[in-house]
Amino acid sequence: MNGLRRAVLFAIFAGTGFSALMLQVVWQRVISMHGGVDLFSTTTVVAAFLGGLGIGSLAGGALADRLGARRSVMAFAAANAGIALFALVSIVLFYDLYRAVAPSLDGLLASFAFNAALLIVPTTLMGLSLPLLARGLVASVGDIGPLVGRLYAVNTLGAALGAAVSGWYLLGTFGFTNVVRIAAAINLTAALLVFTLLRAVSRSADESEATAASSSVGATSVGGASAGGLAWPWFVVYALTGAVALGLEIVFFRLIDTVMRSNSYSFGHVLSLYLALFGIGAGLGSLLVRRARRPERWFLGLQGAAGVSALAGVLALLAPLKGFDPFALGSRLEAYFLGDGFATGFRGENHNVGVIVFANVIAPLMIMGLPVVLGGASFPFVQALVARRVDTLGRRTGLLLFANIVGNVTGSLLT
Fold first, then answer.
1. Tens digit of each residue's pLDDT (9 = 90 or more) over 18-74
2. pLDDT digits (tens, 9 = 90+) for 171-181
3. Which residues touch 238 (CB under 8 Å, ≥6 apart)?
4. Are 141 and 221 in contact (CB under 8 A)?
5. Is residue 128 within 8 Å of 58, Cβ to Cβ?
6. Phi first, then psi: what are they for 364, rounded to 5°?
7. 18, 58, 240, 344: which could form a disulfide with 162 (CB 3.0–4.6 Å)?
8. What is the pTM assigned to this prediction?
């Protein structure tokens, strides 16, 4: 596939990330109407989303290697059409259907199961995307880490923009139903564009490209490591880092939610910042991975630095409250927490741009900026370590994402 068509698919993938997070923010708001704006509704959406993405990643990986390059991209288009159809009926399911069955739902676990069962359908379709597109676009072993890393980055950055725009503007302007219609239109447009794009590509050209890609897979892999080396330890390690990452995300959310005075914008705002930071990290990692002679050292180093910086960020925010206050942050925080904050729209003493910027930008970046960027940057390196052949790229990518998501769900629920 030539450079222009590849760029178009990257743009489409960013658009599907945008629509996915529009839907996630809407569904979290709808669930919070009967579950409360608290840790339950947040955890329900995050855990169910991740569960569906994990199932979809496994299925998409197996499907991608079976279908080959061209038909994998077609399957990506079909998945987006399915997401669009679900989105159009989602408000009826999450609100009206819930009201009908609520008397029979006994406790939080039953409510969680109900919402998770519904969310698993569209999120599984979303999870198919990366393995399918990776198999459709990667033509050589050397491109695995950089290209899949860039795919992950653009999709995540699109998701960050979707979370921010929907949370801060679209929901308040157009309402739940119209926002899910917009998201459905984006997914349907993506499907139509992909089908149109594929019609312009001759089948014989793509098949010859796939044949060339298969013949290029030998014992060489990124970083010069032996293609016969064990890959399974990296799946286990990435699952463990996934558990830590989502545990930290929930801790970050609780801390930032406190600073933001726990309002209906908190979830979408924190999520958009987290995704933007992770996407930036993945993009940086995709630039560096091609030059890395020892990707395993880069991956472990980035993960270790992420852990250290996560602790440092929290301490940097809490230290002024413990007596060490070189920038007078403690007094500013105290004034902020004594004020009305979002409850009155920053009237009076809190109508201060500096306070608003601190609560919404500076404090979140202090808490999670560096560790999330470093975590995102590690993805292309572990991708290069486990996916060493183009003909098994789909399965390896899907399994890597699945392992990480299993860790994500475990970490989020335990935390």
1. 999 999 888 878 887 776 555 666 667 777 778 889 999 999 999 999 998 889 999
2. 889 999 999 99
3. 382, 400, 403, 404, 407
4. yes
5. no
6. -60, -40
7. 18
8. 0.83
